[in-house]
Structure formats: structure tokens, C-alpha cells
Amino acid sequence: MVFAEVRKTDGQAHAARTMWNLLHAWWRMMPKEKRTLANADAAIRQAREDIGFLAVLPAQAAQAVLKTYFQAWKNCWDGRADAPNFKGRFRTVMSVDIPQGRDLNITRVHRRWGMANIPKVGRVRFRWTKDLPVGKHANADNRITGARLIKDALGWHIAFRVQTLEVKPEPHRGPEVGIDVGVTVPIALSDGERYEHGEWLTGKEKAKLLHLEQRAARRKQYRKPGERASRRLHHTYDQIAGLRAKAKRRALDWQHQTTTAIARTYGTVVVEALTITNMVKSARGTIEEPGRNVAQKSGLNRSISGEAWGRTVTMLAYKTARHGGTLHKVPAPNISRRCSACGFITPGSRESQAVFVRKNPDCGWSGNADWNAARNVLHLYRMGHALIPAAGRAVVRRAKRVKSATAR
Beta strand 113-118 with 176-181: parallel, antiparallel or unpaired? Predict the structure, then answer.
């Protein structure tokens, strides 16, 4: 996008965020019997007339905000999410919805670039990364139904919604495999295969990130309590966010390529049922009972969060289903401590992060600790200890909650 297009899209995103906040204020103010879709629609129409800058948001995009807000309350009532709240200016992902695919008028310029029409912005160019059903390739069963503009630290991106008719895949006849996820070795398979990656940022990029973080800390210490951040500090924050977004994009690319290769090769994939939120809890403790090795635990927590094990399992779930395979989860306790050769657990068998040596003289098996854990994962599945057959896109349903006062 050029500068003028970016400013117009930013204005639409801020208008959409303001529309959400106005809807939320209206919802909390109205009695329960008045909270209907028709009344909300009349309220946003009146707001678009009374507040001038809301007119930059297309009417269809405003209707999309309304539908998204009502769906957020339904998700809350069904226990799938928390109650919707106000959206802050700096801590909210900026986005604009284009609910009608016919408004886009997509054309392909050449192999790498395409053009799309954004309402009230104009024709914009986007990177063509995946085949889209446009022109003669589009029909009633395979067509673009809309799009969503999303802004991150690297700029604006467009995600298209495609309605397509997918054929049910044939059952995958590939072998079974157990997977152990870790920090030093991100993914280890029970057949001895390992998937590793390097640092997400180069040496120069890491040095630049450290320099920017130190600069931000110096500038922040001169701010008085309650004083707004300067433009220079905001610019430094933007640079830091850009480098972190670049690292996240590289991590996502590696995860997609790795999980796709696994889903294509194996028919049954077995993983541990890890409770990651408990694994990354702080070891700080309390004043009366302070924790031990707090700094080391903090570093481990950052490494676990950086590997994004939950996202890897989510990708494997829908990709194995897409290729006709299945994904299963088995209990996680003692998987790293159990010997995959004899099946017994002996204290001290895991000598280091990478080496597992059975301390029982009757066995004496030794090998890679990650491979040993992956073999244990597959063994538990074959013994019938699978917890959750996760074929297809896994959706975690939260426990039922009492409706908040504003929802009743």
C-alpha cells in the first residue's frame, strides 16, 4: 500500500474499533429486553449520522462489526470465550472486514502480485501467495465470499474467505508415529527423525533488538508518572514490534512446513496431552515462601512459549484430518522418565537433556532422551491409553460460567 491508502485503511480500522466500543456501551446501558439486533442496527445507523469520522467505514463493514459483537456474546454464553470488552487504541489488533466478495474484484497482475478493490480505499496491490478462485476458476462451489484486512507490526495484510467444496479424503495408510516436543529439540519422532530449527533472528537482528530495548528502557525512565509516551519512544516500540513480528512469521513458516510434512507422511500421529499453562507458571513464590531458581525458570518459560507447542498440535490436528489421518493425545506424566525398552521408571535415568541411560543393571538401555520419550508416547497409544481422539480441527470447549451482570 502507498501512504494515502495506508492512512485510509487506518481510519477505517479506528472507526471499526470505535463502533465496537459504542456498541459495547449501548449494550451495557440498555435493559435486557431492548438488546436486539434490530435496535442495535438502528443505533449504529444513528451513530454514523451523528459522528462524522465513522462515515469512513463502509456500511457493510459496520454491519460486520455488529454481527461480530453479537457473536462474541453468544460465544460467552456458550462457555467458549470470555465476555467482550472495550477495545483499547494500542492493545487491539486493527482490522477491517469486507463481508461481500463481489466488492473485491480481484485480478492477478502476474505470478507474484494481484490487485483487489477495497471499499472507500481503492485498488490495492497484494502479494499472491496462494491460488484463489477468480475468473474462470470461480463457480458456485468454489468462490471468494469476503476478506479481512489485518494490521500487524509489519503492515497491512489481507486474508480472503473462500467457500470451497472439499472431497472427503481417503484414509491415510501411512505408519504410526509418536511425537515428543521439547526446547532443545523442538520435535522428535519415535522412528528417530528429528525436526530442528535455528534462531528466528540473525545475529545482527538480535543485536539491533537488544539495542532498541535498551534505548526504550532509557527513554522510559525519563517519563513522569501519567505522562504520555513521546513520539520517539513510540517509534522505538514500533521497531521492536517489527523485529518480533518478523521472528514470529519465520516461526510460523517453520511450523507449517514441518506439520505438513508429518501429516503427509504418517497416518496416525500421537502427541502428549500437555497442560502448557501450568508448565509456564512463574516460580517466584511469595514473600513468606520465595521460589528457587527463579531466573532459570523464567528463561525456561520463555523458551516453552517461544516454541508454541499448542499451535503445533493445532496445526497437526487439522492437517492430519485433511490428509485422511488422525491425531491422538496420551497422558504426559512420566513419559520422559520411563525406559522405552523395559518399561520401568528408575530415578536418575535421564542423565542430561539429551542422554537417557537405564540405571537398572538388568536392562542397561541407553539412547537419546527425546527419542526415548517419543517411543513412550507411541507405546501408550498402542496400549489403549489415548485420551482425546483429535481428528479434525480441535476446539476446546470451556466450562460453563455464570453470565456476567451485563449479559443477564
Answer: unpaired
**What is the DSSP pairing of strand 187-189 with strand 326-330?**
unpaired
What phi and psi, each to the nearest 5 degrees, are found at residue 363? -110, -70
Strand duo 366-368 + 355-357: pairing: antiparallel
Condensed to tens digits (0 to 9), the pLDDT of residues 191-225 reads 888 899 989 999 999 999 999 999 999 988 888 88
CB 285 within 8 A of CB 276: no
* Alpha-carbon gap, residue 252 to 250, rounded angstroms: 5
Closest Cα partner for 120 from 20, 7, 249, 237? 7
Name the residue among 319, 320, 349 with its Cα closest to residue 336. Answer: 349
Does 391 have pLDDT greater than 50? no
Q: Cell numbers 543485536 correspond to what residue?
A: 207
192: exposed, middle or buried (Cβ count in 10 Å: 0-12, 13-18, 19+): exposed
Predicted pLDDT of residue 394 = 44
d(CA 57, CA 12): 5
Count of CB atoms within 10 A of residue 224's CB?
6
Q: C-alpha 115: how far from its chain's center? A: 27
Identify the pLDDT of residue 351: 62
> What is the secondary structure of 162-223 as a DSSP string?
EE--PPPPPPP-PPEEEEEE-SSSSEEETTS-EE----SS-HHHHHHHHHHHHHHHHHHHTP
Q: What is the pLDDT of residue 252?
A: 93
Q: How far is CA 119 from the centre of its chain?
A: 28
Residue type for position 127 = R
In the chain, what is the greatest distance between 2 CA atoms, to the nearest angstrom?
A: 83
Torsion angle of C-alpha atoms 351, 352, 355, 356, degrees rounded to 10: 40
d(CA 90, CA 72): 21
Burial 91-123 (b: 16+ CB within 10 A, else e): eeebbbbbbbbeebebeeeeeeebebebbebee
Looking at the DSSP assignment, which residues form a beta bridge with residue 80?
none
